[in-house]
Each structure stands twice: as C-alpha cells, then as structure tokens.
Amino acid sequence: MGKLSGIRVVDLTQFLPGPMMTVMMADQGAEVIKVEPAAGDPARVQAPFDTYDGAEQSVWFANLNRGKSSQVLDLKSEQGKARLRDLVAGADVFVEGFRPGVMKRLGFDYDSVRAIKPDIVYCSISAFGQEGALAHHPAHDMAVQALAGFLSVNDGPDGTPVVPGAPSADMAAGLTALSAVLMALVGRERTGEGAYIDCAMFDSMLPWCAHTAGSAIAGGKSPKSQSQRSLGGAGFYQVYETSDGKHVVLGGRELHFARNLLTALGREDLIPIADQPAGEQGELIAFLRESFATKSRAEWVDWFADKDVAFSPVLDFREAFDEPHIGERGLLVEGAGGGRHIAPPIRFAGEDWSPGKVPELDSGGPG
C-alpha cells in the first residue's frame, strides 16, 4: 500500500512534464489511467529501447509511465468523450497538457469536468500558462528556458549560450504540478472542495534563479556568468580540464576547502584570492587550470581521496550509472519482467518499492 493508494488519476499528458508528475504518483500507489490517442504517447517510439515485460519498449517511456494503465480514446468522437466522462466520474485528479483552449473545445475544461465530479483536482500543464500574451506560443523546454533568462547564463567561456543538458523547465513544471496537486488533495480532505491548477513551465522555472539573478530581480542589471560565484566566476566552483582531455570540478566555495587544496598544492598565497568577489579570481583560476592539466582525471581522483575538498570527476552517464553509489542506494532497479528503471527519489523508510508494469497501448481501438 503506497501513500497514494486509493487516489485515481486521469492523465491526458504526453512526453515529459505531465508523465513525470503522474509516474511519481503511480510509484506511490495511485491508480493512473493514461489516456492516449490511437498512435500512443509519442515517447513510446523514442529510442533507445530495452526489453520490458518481454517487449522492446522505449526506456524514456518505460521510466515515465510504469505502473499506469492505458486507454486509447478518440476525444473527437462521442464514444470517446462518453468513456472519458465515465473515467472522470470516478477520478480524484485530472491532468492535461494540451495548448490552452483545446480542452474547452473538446468539452473537458475545468467547468465541464467539475460538473461531472465537483471535488475534482484539475491540473493544466503548459509552457506559459492559460492566459497572457504568450499563452498560445508553442514552446518546448529550451525555448522556455530562453525566454525565462536561464539560457543566457547557460554559456561557455566566450559567453555563447549552449543547449542545456537537463530539461529543467519540463522537470520544474512536473515537480510544481505534483506539489500543487498534493496540496489540493490535502485541502480537499479538510474542505471537501476540489481545485483548478494552472501550472506553467515558465512560472515553475523562475524561482530557480533566486540565488543567481538577484540583481535583475531587484530591478537592476542582468547577471553575467563570469561575475557569478555559482556560474563560473569563482575558482572553487569551476570546471577544469585534465591532462587526458577529461574534466573535473571543484564544487564548494567555502574558504576552508580553498585552504585545504591550496595548502596541499603549496600555494597558500592564493588563499586570500579565493575569498575575493566572483570575477576577481583570475589569478587563482589560471593557477588551478595549469595544475589540473598536469594529471589525468583518474590520477586526480586518487590524489583527492584523502583531502577534504569538494571535488568530483565529470562522469558520463555510463560511468555515473556504473558508480558503486548507484548500487548502494538502489537507484537503478530491474523490473520483474526485465528492463531497468531509475528508482523514485521519494522512497519511505520501511516500505519496499518495485517498478510497476509498463502499460501496453490499449488494443481495443480508440473509443
């Protein structure tokens, strides 16, 4: 019995933010009914693939949709709409990720759904929200990050923005939507009333810049990476290349880390520079670049083993998933029918978890 056992979710979302949100609910015991078009969620055909329950399936789809059931509904047909209304009547949560206005045209906007199930918790996930000048502007993760200012500091040493390595706007929206839905369910227990949630990827990203964009938030100039401690302006929060063309990072700006490392390297004279404002540590950064270029990544890992410094090698995903820490924490789990899953980050003490079955696309044809 998971923490959300007894909660039924009707999930009309595809790709990433919505499915990420609802898989976290399914992992905790919620009954999630994934409503799909006849072709299925496009993530079903996204490579690479692995064998789950005896069939080749997308690793992406499996990891974001395990433990759900699937129903194919044609929401433009009367039969499909009737079947969805039946699902809504027994649901606690309704989640959709279409462009603003689509659900109203289909007859399943919040007012219509609430007429069927008055205490429903209804969550709409979109790029920019249901209202405003950008509401109908098409965008996936990177475009949202660009318009929210984040891509401007996702840049290289020459200041050119690069494609981000993590879909932060997607994931922020999924986590924000999950939090809002759970809050609404708690509130419903107290008041008996449901709620409507307008969750935008753009809105969800903004709080993530409070520690770096303070000057802009306060009405001043935009921060630049090379003058920010957390974005490349500090010697002890920086990426360095090693002699074998790989990389390591220093990931702790506290002065005692600088003291420990610079003493071990025989450059105590540079310790005061580590305490200077970001953007004024050029001499220190230059020394560290020269130093790290003298040994391979593996040699530096060995060298740092007995030193109290926030240091890490930059690993690729294969190396990261092969790290002993993954096994020790049980973070990569094989399903009963095969195929590997990333374990949920929320796991409760004393409760066992195993990945639910990956849903087959409903073979009954669109309703």
TrEMBL record:
Single GO MF descriptor: transferase activity
Name the Enzyme Commission number(s) assigned to this protein: 2.8.3.-
Q: SUPFAM superfamilies per the record?
A: CoA-transferase family III (CaiB/BaiF)
For this protein, the record's Pfam families field holds: CoA_transf_3 (PF02515)
The organism's superkingdom is given as Bacteria
Could you tell me which InterPro entries the record lists for this protein? CoA-transferase_III, CoA-Trfase_fam_III, CoA-Trfase_III_dom3_sf, CoA-Trfase_III_dom_1_sf
> Which keywords are on file for this protein?
Transferase
Name of the protein: CoA transferase
Upper lineage is: Bacteria, Pseudomonadati, Pseudomonadota, Alphaproteobacteria, Sphingomonadales
